[in-house]
Amino acid sequence: MGLTSKSTGTKILDEDIFKNSKTSDFTIGLAGNPNVGKSTVFNGLTGMHQHTGNWPGKTVSNAVGTYSYSNKTFLLVDIPGTYSLMSDSEEEEIARNYICSGKSDLTVVVLDATSIERNLNLAFQIMDITPNVLICVNLLDEAKKKGIHIDFELFSELLGVPVVGVTARKKHTLNKLTQAIYDVCNGKIKPSPKIHFSKQTSKSNTVSEILKKSEEICQKVCTYQKQDYNERDRKIDKVLTSKLFGIPIMLLFLGLIFWLTIEGANYPSQLLAKMFSALQNQLYSLFEWLHAPDFLTGILIDGMYRTLAWVVSVMLPPMAIFFPLFTFLEDLGYLPRIAFNLDNCFKRCCASGKQALTMCMGFGCNACRCRWM
Ligand SMILES: Nc1nc2c(ncn2[C@@H]2O[C@H](COP(=O)(O)OP(=O)(O)OP(=O)(O)O)[C@@H](O)[C@H]2O)c(=O)[nH]1
Ligand SMILES: [Mg+2]
Known about the structure:
This protein is of the alpha/beta class.
């Protein structure tokens, strides 16, 4: 049983999903909290290149791709991350609308293996809407590093729906997921959720009861080599997101990155400009030797070559410095903290802290625009 995949484009509207679903045997929605690896799972299954990034809010619209497994075609919908079906940011509304629309034959809820307790809240809400749920616990490599062990059989038994564990970055680990999706879609496995968010809340009339239930499940299915596995991260988090130090540390980091980018880019920019200028003289000599007409020299060297050389020498060095530095902050896991620190401030102008990150990236283009003007 081989897996073949086919991409069908990104940023798809709901009508397009409907059209595509007609040509596929099953439609699968990929839901979950932000930054749990949904797009990485999506890319692994469909062979597409959806943008992934270590910060919440990377995917802001539905994207679709298809893959085939055992003579069946599956349409996979990568939904923007959301913490709850009650959230109200634009991309979270897109997620909620799609999940609640009932357009999927199966909803795969992706959980972060290192924060199962927090992630389960959304899973319960989805199980309340549809019984056709499969839980995919991702980031098993990170969980292993932290000494977290998960009993998948017990997990599945307690929830009443199939649970599989994957490390989406390693494609071969997705085989279990493809098999489980196939089995559920073909009726070999029948999910039957045991916990219902709405029923529980009406009984006890409090959401905290549900949270207690999510906590109980976690205690049963997760075993920790070190109980204080999260202690160091929490201490660092407290400082990085504190009211007193959060913003100054953020300004320091971003200031340092911009300074390194602006100052550091001058040297390679000058070097590239000199190199292109030397090459330009050689090109003039070549065109003269070829007796090329003036208008051709004007178009090709004065026009195309000089513009291209100028753009490359001005734009390439800042990008070559800024993006690796930004990726370094991303790999450190600092970007979601920036989003958190700026959330209040951004909310005042009806935006979200997550937008700060794309805004930071946009600064490079603003600077270039100013120079052009
Ligand atoms: N170590 C590790 N990292 C992973 C794994 N899967 C995804 N990641 C990383 O986790 C980060 C988030 O992945 P995405 O696929 O963008 O997450 P997402 O759930 O689509 O995020 P949103 O679109 O913001 O909701 C990226 O940096 C991925 O490279 C995994 O199995 N192991
Ligand atoms: Mg995504």
